[in-house]
Amino acid sequence: MGSREFYPVVRPYDSGLLDVGDGEEIYWEVCGNPDGKPAVFLHGGPGGGLLPDHRRFFDPSAYRIVLFDQRGCGRSRPHAGDPSVSLERNTTPHLVADMERLRTYLGIERWLVFGGSWGSTLALAYAQAHPGRVTEMVLRGVYLVRPADEAWAFAPGGASQLFPAEWAAFRDAIPPAERDDLVAAYGRRIGHPDPDVRTPAARAWIGWELAANTLLPVPPPDLDDSLVLAFARITHHYIASGGFLPPGGLLAGVDRIRHLPAVIVNGRYDMKTPPDQAWELHRAWPEAEFHIVEDAGHGGSEPGVRHRLIEATDAFRP
């Protein structure tokens, strides 16, 4: 199988800050063809924010590509890198409502919804809440946020066995007496008023988050303290709350979206969101096209995963 390359670099032709209430403004941008088929890209994290390559999964001559930074991260305001910023109104239902406000603001009737990692979680939550506003779905690195999924990532016996040195660094940043619940212990430290406590904790948290992102190691990004703290605060906030998902989780609502054309893609060696989650989604949604990429991990830009994702958006072009 050949590998489809990213579409050329494209820059937004429109952007702004949208007031979504609660004192929050989300940064949004639109690129591609103003008269093209609407598609919205949902970034991961949560709290990861947009990257320029996120625009490049779509044919810019065919799509009107909408992207936005979710609450508290990227260029949205207020920024969670400020420890005084409350996350009380940063939940999945709030993000779903933000998407609807943005869709209405941009005058879009229906759009293709594309999400990877946490973005797949938000995509499923949005589509189940507003199935009539979705034309198709493209999902990568499916994250269902079930208790077992969180245990795989943040408790001994899961990903820790495959990344022992990285796990040791994550675990050893917490005193031995508190290691029975690392997520809770990190919450106390990431939220600590002393920057000499919260900043090292946030860096240890994000170090573990990034440890298993790709099949082959890549250099970690150089992030300033504000970006690190925002990512750690928001990610921890959602992890500690089960993703703010409805009772029964996302699989319970699949029947509301089974009529939608969809493509599910997961790397075989995805250590962040192992393929059992994508498989369980596919079992509940057998009509969805399903691909396991044999030589890939979690990253959306890994060649085999990128190929399948661009193949999907190409197939859904007008």
UniProtKB/TrEMBL annotation:
EC assignment: 3.4.11.5
Keyword check for Cytoplasm: yes
UniProt domain AB hydrolase-1: residue ranges: 40-299
Reaction equation(s) it catalyzes: Release of N-terminal proline from a peptide
InterPro entries xrefs: AB_hydrolase_1, AB_hydrolase_fold, Peptidase_S33, Pro_iminopeptidase
Family assignment from sequence similarity: Belongs to the peptidase S33 family.
GO function terms (MF aspect): aminopeptidase activity
Upper classification of the organism: Bacteria, Bacillati, Actinomycetota, Actinomycetes, Streptosporangiales
Identification of the protein by name: Proline iminopeptidase
Gene3D superfamilies, per the entry: alpha/beta hydrolase
Location(s), subcellular: Cytoplasm
UniProt cross-references to Pfam families, sorted A to Z: Abhydrolase_1 (PF00561)
Keywords carried by this UniProt record: Aminopeptidase, Cytoplasm, Hydrolase, Protease
